[in-house]
């Protein structure tokens, strides 16, 4: 009897079984939607494809929340999840959406800027697919994504990414990185269409201030800081000094390099009307020499290897047994954002942006991130938006 | 874009042909199957 076909069929069936077993959690993660409750200040929810039609029907399209004040004033854009493995940006944006009331001016908030990236993962690094934030009413589950968009949505990668319009040669992977594809093109690769959508939003709505909220490794020099180009650096410095004096945390200013293209803090100001700022809060989870990449590490930022490196002065931020918990990172981002808007309003009195209801650093550190998240189950009908 | 799909199809046929032809080395059979997974998924556009 010829056993060859039998063996091959059995092997093929085993491999198909393994693929299904391993693939199903990834399919569920890709389809999992995060509910966000429209807070008292939300006046409209748009799609980014309204500004960049090339996104329509793709998983790169995403929600844009509008919080229009009772009185006219300046306009600001807040962006979270540019890198979906830096969730402090997304959580900062969600807290603003669910809590802020705008008295003067208008806020535009995009909590899941790289929506495709937030539905991607980094299996080789053992990334968790989700993380839960403890709240007063239970736990809120969020997708934990990857730095880059999914190759399922944008494929193939080039050998080298040639930045548009500067033609600087960047790493091939950066074609899926929404902090390298600014200012983007209407008909470019999918991630260029995402950044083009945001640029169009800023141009059409005449946005004054754009804040792109990130997290960065403790071993990376550009961390715990505000990155600002020449035209924003004055406001960034004022915000940094004021926060040090009034709220007691360090957040220095880094200049945006002219020769490094594709980044939001460089291209937004060079190609549009807005003053760009990029916030970096230290996130130990992203450092290479840590223990396993667990949800616990993501939330509390405590790692014995980083502690040891800190004692050898190898980190760029203070680090002790208390780690860098999510509360500190999100609280810091909220305070820095509010302070930038306050400084802008002081300097540009005819275009003020006045917001209330948003917690600051001390509030979030004391009460926790979850305290400021709304319960979708008890929200009024029509108030929950899936992202 | 079409060229990339043609290359994918070509590589898939190559791996499948080797899988069918292989008679002795079981390890190679498993490797051919593993190589075929991403090519097949990409060709069928399964997400």
In the CATH hierarchy, the architecture of chain A is 3-Layer(aba) Sandwich
Number of domains of chain A: 1
Intertermini distance of chain A: 57 Å
Uncertain segments of chain A are none
Q: Could you state the CATH homologous superfamily of chain A?
A: Zn peptidases
Q: At the first level of CATH, what is the class of chain A?
A: Alpha Beta
Helix content percent band of chain B: over 70%
Straight-line N-to-C gap of chain B: 18 Å
Q: What is the total domain count of chain B?
A: 1
Query: Strand-and-helix sequence of chain A, N→C?
Result: HEEEEHEHEEEEHEEHEHEHHHEHE
- Main interface: chain pair and counts: A-B, 11 and 13 residues
pLDDT averaged over residues of chain A: 96
Any overview of this molecule?
- The complex is a heterodimer of chains A (about 375) and B (about 45).
- Chain A is an alpha/beta fold and about 375 residues long.
- Chain A has one domain: Aminopeptidase (3-Layer(aba) Sandwich).
- In chain A, strands 2, 3, 4, 5, 10, 11, 12, 13 and 14 form a nine-stranded mixed β-sheet that branches. In chain A, strands 1-15 form a two-stranded antiparallel ribbon. In chain A, strands 6-7 form a two-stranded antiparallel ribbon.
- In chain A, strand 11, helix 5 and strand 12 form a beta-alpha-beta unit.
- In chain A, helix 5 crosses helix 9.
- The longest helix of chain A is centred in the N-terminal third of the chain and has 28 residues.
- Chain A is globular, with a radius of gyration of 21 Å.
- The mean pLDDT of chain B is about 90.
- Chain B is elongated, with a radius of gyration of 12 Å.
- Chain B has one domain.
- Chain B contains two helices and no strands.
- At the A-B interface, helix 1 of A face helix 1 and helix 2 of B.
């Amino acid at each position: 009897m010829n056993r060859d076909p039998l063996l091959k069929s059995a092997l093929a069936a085993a491999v198909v079984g393994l693929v299904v077993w391993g693939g199903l959690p990834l399919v569920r993660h890709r389809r999992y939607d995060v509910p966000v409750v429209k807070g008292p200040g939300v006046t409209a929810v748009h799609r980014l494809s309204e500004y960049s039609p090339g996104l329509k029907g793709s998983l790169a399209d995403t929600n844009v929340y509008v919080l229009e004040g009772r009185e006219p004033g300046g306009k600001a854009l807040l962006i979270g999840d540019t890198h979906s493995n830096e969730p402090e940006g997304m959580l900062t944006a969600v807290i603003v959406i669910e809590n802020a009331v705008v008295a003067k001016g208008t806020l535009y908030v995009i909590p899941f800027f790289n929506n495709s990236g937030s539905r991607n993962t980094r299996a080789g690094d053992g990334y968790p697919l989700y993380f839960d934030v403890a709240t007063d009413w239970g736990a809120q589950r969020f997708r934990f994504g990857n730095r880059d968009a999914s190759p399922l949505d944008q494929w193939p990668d080039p050998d080298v990414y040639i930045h548009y319009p500067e033609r600087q040669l960047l790493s091939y992977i950066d074609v899926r990185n929404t902090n390298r594809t600014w200012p983007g093109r209407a008909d470019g690769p999918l991630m260029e269409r995402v950044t083009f959508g945001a640029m169009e939003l800023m141009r059409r709505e005449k946005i004054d201030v754009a804040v792109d909220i990130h997290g960065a490794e403790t071993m990376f020099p550009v961390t715990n800081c505000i990155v600002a180009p020449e035209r924003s650096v004055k406001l960034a410095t004022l915000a940094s000094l004021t926060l040090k004096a009034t709220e007691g945390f360090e957040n220095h200013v880094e200049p945006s390099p002219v020769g490094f293209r594709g980044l939001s803090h460089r291209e937004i100001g060079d190609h549009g009307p807005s003053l760009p700022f990029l916030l970096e809060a230290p996130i130990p989870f992203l450092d290479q020499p840590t223990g396993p990449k667990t949800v616990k590490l993501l939330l509390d930022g405590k790692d014995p290897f980083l502690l040891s490196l800190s004692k050898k002065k190898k980190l760029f931020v203070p680090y002790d047994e208390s780690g860098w918990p999510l509360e500190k990172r999100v609280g810091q981002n909220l305070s820095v954002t509010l302070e930038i808007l306050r400084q802008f309003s002081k300097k540009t009195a005819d275009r003020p942006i006045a917001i209330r209801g948003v917690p600051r650093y001390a509030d979030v550190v004391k009460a926790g991130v979850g305290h400021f998240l709304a319960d979708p189950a008890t929200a009024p009908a029509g108030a929950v938006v899936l992202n | 874009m079409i060229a990339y799909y043609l290359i994918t199809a070509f590589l898939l046929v190559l791996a499948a042909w080797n899988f069918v032809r292989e008679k002795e080395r079981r390890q190679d059979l498993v490797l051919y199957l593993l190589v075929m997974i991403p090519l097949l998924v990409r060709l069928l556009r399964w997400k």
